[in-house]
C-alpha cells in the first residue's frame, strides 16, 4: 500500500485523509512512498528541504545544498519528520514559558493561545476551570485531582513544545 509523507512537515498522512493532520497541507502535495520505502515518481527529495532534486543536479535548486551525498536515482529511505530542521517558531518561547510556569500553577492552555491554537487553548482553559472547581468543591479527592492535574500539565507542555519547535 502506498504511504503518503507530507512535504511540509514530514508526517505520515493517513490513506483515507485528504490533508496532513499535523500541519494541514494538502495530500496531493505529499511524497508517495511504495511498500519498499522508495519514493514513487522518480524524484529524490533533498535531505535538507525535502523538495525534489532533479536527477544529476549538483545543487538543490530550492535551498542550495550540495547534492554529492544524495543518490542520483530513487531509493532513499523515508522516516517521519526527516525533511526540514526544527526551528523555534514566532512566540514559541513565550508559549513554552506560559505553558510551563502557569501550567505548574494549574492554569493550562495559555501556551496554545500564544501560538494561536484557539480550540486547544480554550479546551485546556476549560479543563483548568473544571479541575479547580472539583478541587474546591471536594476536600476528600485531593489526590485524584492532583494526579489529573499532573497529567494535564505534562500533556499540554508536551503539545506546546512540539508546536513551538515546529518545522519551517
Describe this structure in words.
By secondary structure, the chain is mainly alpha-helical. The protein has two domains: 1-83, no CATH class; 92-164. Helices cover 36% and strands 7% of the residues. The chain has four helices and five strands. Strands 2-1-3 form a three-stranded antiparallel beta sheet, with no helix packed on it. Strands 4-5 form a two-stranded antiparallel ribbon. A hairpin with a 6-residue loop joins β1 and β2. α1 packs antiparallel against α4 and α3 (118-137) packs antiparallel against α4. Mean pLDDT is 78; it is low at 70-81.
* Poorly predicted residue ranges: 70-81
Q: Count helical runs.
A: 4
Strand order of the largest sheet: 2-1-3
How many individual domains? 2
Strand-residue proportion? 5-15%
Structural class: mainly alpha
Q: What is the averaged pLDDT score?
A: 78
Q: What does the main sheet amount to? A: 3 strands, antiparallel
Into which percent range does the helicity of residues fall?
Answer: 25-40%
General shape: elongated
Distance between the termini: 29 Å
Helices and strands, in order, run as: EEEEEHHHH
Per DSSP E runs of 2 or more residues, the count of β-strands stands at: 5
| Backbone CA Rg | 21 Å
Amino acid at each position: 500500500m502506498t504511504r503518503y509523507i507530507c512535504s511540509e512537515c514530514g508526517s505520515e498522512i493517513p490513506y483515507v485523509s485528504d490533508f496532513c493532520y499535523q500541519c494541514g497541507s494538502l495530500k496531493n502535495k505529499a511524497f508517495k512512498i511504495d511498500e519498499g520505502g522508495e519514493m514513487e515518481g522518480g524524484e529524490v527529495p533533498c535531505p535538507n528541504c525535502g523538495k525534489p532534486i532533479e536527477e544529476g543536479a549538483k545543487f538543490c535548486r530550492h535551498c542550495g545544498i550540495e547534492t554529492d551525498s544524495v543518490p542520483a536515482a530513487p531509493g532513499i529511505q523515508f522516516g517521519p519528520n526527516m525533511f526540514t530542521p526544527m526551528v523555534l517558531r514566532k512566540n514559541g518561547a513565550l508559549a513554552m514559558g506560559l505553558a510551563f510556569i502557569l501550567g505548574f500553577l494549574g492554569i493550562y492552555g495559555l501556551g496554545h493561545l500564544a501560538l494561536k491554537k484557539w480550540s486547544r487553548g480554550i479546551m485546556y482553559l476549560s479543563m483548568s476551570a473544571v479541575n479547580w472547581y472539583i478541587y474546591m468543591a471536594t476536600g476528600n479527592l485531593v489526590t485524584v485531582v492532583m494526579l489529573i492535574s499532573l497529567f494535564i500539565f505534562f500533556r499540554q507542555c508536551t503539545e506546546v513544545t512540539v508546536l513551538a519547535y515546529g518545522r519551517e
